[in-house]
Amino acid sequence: MERRWFGEEMINRITLLLFIGLALWSCEDNDKCIDESKISDDYNCDDVYDPVCGCDEVTYSNACEAENSGVTEWTEGECN
Known about the structure:
This protein is of the alpha+beta class. It has one domain. It has helices at 8-33, 63-68, and strands at 34-39, 52-54, 59-60, 69-71, 74-76. The strands form two sheets. Strands 3-2-5 form a three-stranded antiparallel β-sheet. A two-stranded antiparallel sheet has the order 1-4. It is elongated and about 65 Å long.
């Protein structure tokens, strides 16, 4: 009989804990990424397509749209 360090049940528990930890960690980042006080439906952005990738991993048409969606940080270009 071969001796194993971790049984399948233990590996499943570790995987579940890692998944929960990553999910909670990513939620914390999104809380800092979106400033709800800056969300506005009443804005007039140019229709110029100059995409930015928000810290929430969403591609916005331009910086104006990202800013009025409450995004606090973005980089130039589309999200991957």
